[in-house]
Design a protein that fits this description.
mainly alpha
């Protein structure tokens, strides 16, 4: 695809802009900012990845993954305000999921340790963890705010912090995991996943594209479980003090 063809694709931005201005939705500025940011960020990443792929240095691969983890963490903690220590929790979760998934794939020789394989898959893993963590935190904070009286009542009756928060915690974990599970149920019937479509457009054999996509689906399911559970069980402890008293959500970012 040439830059001229890419510029022609901006017509797809005009359609939502026209709709938002016609219906007075107030999303025009957000659409323009999102468009400009995506163009700039992806073009920069494209040049960086070209350099990394050509060098095939393990150091550069590690730095690229670290950059993705930091960027994802900064985005997630905005939703985690009110939970003390959320930055460390998110960093630990992202690093743990990345090490777990990459360790399994490299250990079982599912993929080779090459930039063209490791970086794109790591991006999918980290990006998916970011979305799931955002979904969890949004639901968890809502559950805690709505159920604070119930939590305090259970504590007053002699319940432990884990017992008091159990319903809110599990509800938030389930809410964050459901979209991933439901999407996999209709995969291939309702939609062709992005990685599979990209490989086919790039000329890969459809069955090879399917196998790579299945790998990603399995990874995403693991991400959904591990990231939601880790963020959840590490976060809820921060809402109680050492005397098992409920502190609730604070106004702190960290």
């Amino acid at each position: 695809m040439s830059y001229v063809q890419l510029a022609s694709a901006l017509v797809f931005i005009l359609i939502p802009l026209v709709l938002t201005y016609t219906l007075k939705l107030g999303l025009g500025n957000d659409i323009l900012i999102a468009t400009v940011r995506s163009i700039v960020q992806l073009l920069i990443v494209g040049y960086i990845l070209t350099f990394v792929f050509e060098s095939d240095s393990k150091i550069y691969i590690g730095l690229m993954i670290l950059l993705m983890i930091v960027a994802a963490t900064l985005n997630i903690i905005k939703k985690g305000d009110g939970i003390p220590g959320i930055t460390g929790i998110i960093l630990l979760t992202l690093v743990s999921v990345e090490v777990l998934t990459m360790g399994i794939m490299l250990g079982l020789r599912i993929i080779p340790f090459e930039a063209q394989e490791v970086i794109p898959i790591s991006g999918m893993v980290i990006g998916n963890c970011m979305i799931l963590s955002l979904l969890f935190l949004n639901k968890f904070k809502d559950e805690v705010e709505r159920g604070d009286e119930v939590i305090e009542l259970i504590l007053a009756l002699g319940g432990t912090p884990k017992t008091a928060i159990d319903r809110s915690l599990k509800s938030a974990i389930k809410t964050s995991m459901i979209p991933t599970i439901e999407a996999q149920k209709t995969m291939g019937l309702v939609q062709l996943p992005g990685m599979m479509s990209g490989l086919i457009i790039g000329g890969a054999n459809p069955m090879e594209a399917v196998m790579y996509q299945l790998l990603i689906l399995f990874l995403i399911l693991t991400n959904a479980a591990v990231s939601s559970v880790m963020v959840g069980y590490l976060s809820y402890r921060k809402l109680f003090n050492q005397k098992a008293q409920f502190l609730g959500l604070t106004n702190r970012n960290d």
